[in-house]
Specification:
six-stranded parallel β-sheet, two-stranded parallel sheet, 8 strands, 49% helix
Amino acid sequence: MMFTPRPKQKDILAYHGGRMGISAVPGSGKTQILSLLAAQIITSGRLEDDQEVLVVTLVNSAVDNFSIRVGELVQEMGLLPNLGYRVRTLHGLAHDIVRERPDLLGLADNFQIIDERIADQIRRDAAQTWLKTNPGAILSFLNPSLEESKLDWVNREHIPAKVSEIALAFIRYAKDRQLDPLEITSRLDRLPVPLPLAQMCAEIYQSYQQALIYRGALDFDDLIRLALQSVQRDESYLERLSYRWPFILEDEAQDSSRLQEKILSTLSSVHGNWVRVGDPNQAIFDTFTTASPKSLRRFLALPDVTDLDMPNSGRSTRSIIDLANYLIEWTQKSHPRIEAREALVLPPIELTPPGDPQPNPQDDPLAIHLVDQKFTPQEEVQFVVDSFRHSIPGGPIYESAR
């Protein structure tokens, strides 16, 4: 597998230790570079036989991708694959940490982890129970001009799902800040004015947690919270894990939550070798979790962090890159909402350098169409599908929805 790094990528591959942050634009080759960096560390002789490079990424499919790439690179460098590295999602890493020492948390050795489908059902049941126990309590949150004939339909078809959705965001926020239901209730009781929506969520949170305790189970957010508690409670356990993983490489760092970032910061506090790669302008999960790209930006600005970037993208044409860069500049200088001007940051996206093995596609400015129509998510997917029908007459139709 021949790979010629770009000039900016060479700077990253010169890494020998310490904390490093990398701003990587879409299509810049961050998976390849992180994989190659991991392979370099493994084959450099800096690891003991019982040590590993820890690679942490966002989703399970990326775990497989990294594992394959690192294994192939290590083998090309003359060593056996599948040795000297561990690739995990952050939840997978948290599971490893909690499962190894459940006694630190008062958990049974056979504790269960429920998947999101079961967690959603437990939370929906808790929301339904709250609604039945508090009839009419939700009316104060509805539009007072809502017709009586529609009220029953709204209560039946929309309110339960919306209450469950709000409770999900509340519970995730609470667990990310290590707040249990009793602590939240105590804080609400001390407030000078009532917050009925927060009180509703706190009661649903308490019912949800009681259901988990009854099952002897944890959800994925509990894993993150308890993993951090494990390494904070036992210094010898933290030292053992830090020794096991003397180098931590983190992918998609812009989508790490506050607790996820804290776990990796704690694990790397002993040896200080932590590389974070992400795109500060591309947060995938900040709408659905407590993640925020601002955390990565703060990390990049720390005085002891080596701040590098990978601005070259071979994925798009010049016109698309110019449009994306214009959006960054317009947002920073001209967005009508002042608070939104910090939403996008530099560096701008750059074309690949001359002679690059992944050159940019041939430019076609006329292929860009700006649509000012407001779509629902379903309408947007249909619009994209229809555009393929028109652009590829008689050809295959590729449908993609995220």
